[in-house]
Fold this protein.
Amino acid sequence: MSLPEPDNVVLEALQSRCARQDHRALSELYKKVSPYLLALLLRMLRTRDLAEDALQDVFVRVWRQAGQFEVRRGRALAWMASISRYRALDMLRGRQAWVGVEAVSEVSVSAARPESTLTQRTLDHCLNLLSGDQRHCLGLAYQQGLTQDNIATSLGYSIGTVKSWVCRALSSLRRCLDS
Amino acid sequence: MNYERADLREQLAGAYVVGTLRGPARLRFARACAGSQNLRSAVHRWEDQLLPLLECVAPVIPRARVWDKILWRTGARLTAPLTRTLSWRWALAGGLALSLGVLVSVRVLYSPLQVVATVGQDRMHPLWTVSRSADSNILEIRALQNVQSSSRSAYELWALPGQGNSPVSLGLLPRTGTIKRRLSIVERGAMLRSNRLAVSLEPLGGSPTGAPTGPVLILSDVRHST
């Protein structure tokens, strides 16, 4: 099951109101987005307490930095998802989290989504141009927050091999997404 | 490192967004982002284009206490949220205590504040005063004049706890007027342990990393009451 993406225009309007310190807007934003953000935080941090602590930090940051989004003019959800991922990465790196082989699940980077947008279809197309190993490494790093060391140990490859796959995957994706 | 080289910029921005750029290299890149529109655009493009990878997740509703804590930390509530389910006896006792807590909190919020730092380039040209309540729960920052900065940057205040501890953001400094808010536990602890405050120049909205990314412009001593 995937979460329908909230309307970007609505989210941008709520963020603008947050920039003007409107708590009601923050409440509406929280209702619309927090289940999505908590899900992605849980996938990275794996425990509910940690993920909910991170979610708090994310919304406090959104509240304080809502004005920054207006300058950036990107997609509102991408901005908040990025704040969430970076917070989770900080928490993972801060506690030197170790994720064993058993915890490394196959990542559904090419799973079909019910309501594919143009962006999703383009990304799916570009991901399908990568090798399976490249796609897998990219997904483990991006979706689960694993370090390249973790990925190498967990999958039984050398760190050099994993770094090379990730590097080539990024180059290939950039070329494809730009074309 | 030449971040303006397009291929290198794209590779590093991708690694930053995916999370494989780590440690000092990640911090250097984040600092460079603060001063380069090209780098920020590269990061934003990756963030937007990779977003669909995050959408294959089943939504999870947060527990109610998360929102309570957010309200408290953003200053919409005066009292810390309760985190346990209470029986009716405890709820009654808790209600009474909560009432007292509200009274105490209101009193704290409106209790006299003590100026603990005057922030400026030198003593003759103060820009802000930083005050806190007796229990250090409330922070007030007052702009003493109309502080100038570019429309794309902001001044951020940091507590410097020292002894190897990282700076802790105390929020953006107002260009005019006064900001008064409740400190989180982390901010309060950092404030109490700090003998100095710093002001850094950051992108509009504040540091994107949670640590100072721009140049430190001002260092000011903190006066702790004895």
User: Anything to note?
Assistant: Residues 9 and 76 of chain A are 8 Å apart (CA to CA). Helices of chain A lie at 8-19, 23-45, 48-72, 76-94, 118-128, 132-144, 148-155, 159-178. The first helix of chain A runs from residue 8 to 19.
